[in-house]
Protein 1
Amino acid sequence: MVSEYRLRRRVQFYETDAAGIVHFSWFFRYMEEAEHALWREAGLSIAPIVADVGWPRVAASFDFHRPLRFEDEFDVLIRVAAISEKTMRYVCLITQGAAKIATGTMTIACVSKGNEPLRAVSIPADIVSRFQAVAEGSERP
């Protein structure tokens, strides 16, 4: 079972704003990129070509502590914080060396694809069995 994944990245020029720092919207992309890597580590894809379920984001937030700039190298640590019948919640820590850059959370819901409006459904057993939540208050993030 997979609980967390660490992704190493470098800031690209197009991710920065006029002030020369990473635009806030990119932090959500970094978290999502790490999430997809977490799913691959579990032997899955969050968006396979043929799938009965989808995973919309129902909540996402970030707190920013320090800026990142062009060509900075940094790590994105994503951890499964909670799994319920129909949702998964992640916590995310973005660091540059020992410096905390940003902390975030994201909750995804399992929905049945092809039904309008979207309807939350139970996470399939073959998916939920690949992940393990780590209790809040554990070392990091």
Note: The first strand starts at residue 4 and ends at 10.
Protein 2
Amino acid sequence: MLNHGNVLASIGPIARASQPYMRYERLIHPLRILNTLPLSHVFGQTMGLWVPPIYRAELHFEERLAAPRLIETIRRERISVLAAVPRVLALLKTHLEATLPGLTERAAGPKGTATGVSVPLRWWRFRDVHSAFGLKFWPSSAGAGHCRDHSKSSGMRLAWWWCRGTG
């Protein structure tokens, strides 16, 4: 049963852990979160109900999970954070690989791996991807018990931050 005490118990640790970083919040204000998770999902509740008030963030919901529509919404609304399941991240990856020629080869890098490449070089290498999403978009947050490595590594290769929440 969800009651006031349960909500406060869930919000308290997040609020305390975020306090050291709140001074940086003004650099990215307004923080905008695109939540594609249902509110019946625990991570969807966290990203949709509890995190936005802590960071004074705007919250956007998207019910249709079509990659072109998600990318257009992220760019148009200047979304900062995408909260999604790994399937949605894989959907975006597939769409980008289909529409941007040579993306898969660039993600693999000259030596077959993207490890050891500096962040500025990755930003330059994938400037077309960053242009598609907009420069304000930087992290993807996936809520799932099981995440495949390719989703995580693809986001890191494209030089945006990727984190995992469980639900």
Note: Residues 150-157 have pLDDT under 50 and may be disordered.
Protein 3
Amino acid sequence: MLFSPTIHRDRASFARPFCSSLFLLARNAVQRAPYEYRTDPAVPRFSDDRPVVVFDGKCILCSSFAQFLLKKDRDGRFRLLAAQSVLGSALYRHFDLDPVDYETYVLLQDGKAYFRSEATLRILAGLGMPWRLLATLGRLVPLALSDAVYGVIARNRLRWFGVRAQCYLPDPSRADRFLS
């Protein structure tokens, strides 16, 4: 088995099969230094003192997840940002993601960007119990497998769940939870 010390930085430190480790090496190779986006002149300045979730505001599944976050995140820990916004688009480009076909949402936490299933598990863990327990159980699944399942859902989400005519807009009482 091949392991790298950087592989387990974001996941539980249990053994992984060889192919999963190679997949993780490829994923970790694109990670950037914390808060690097602050030095990118194409990324507008924004408040990043709390975790930010960048999501596809036109996708019904994605905007439903944003509503779920608003409901379950009673402490207001997470801020939300539509990928279709100027800032959302700039962040997608900064992280070498397609700024039109939103294949993943992005979690910015402590200046680091997380994608796909890793972002999902970190968000769930940040919501407290029982969601933290669900995230802990999710870490038992190899990252390659959970990202593969995430990819299938991401590729088919618009067909399966639909598209909004316009971006999801928060209830005015929760507008402070959104970056624009």
Note: Strands lie at 52-55, 79-82, 106-109, 112-115.
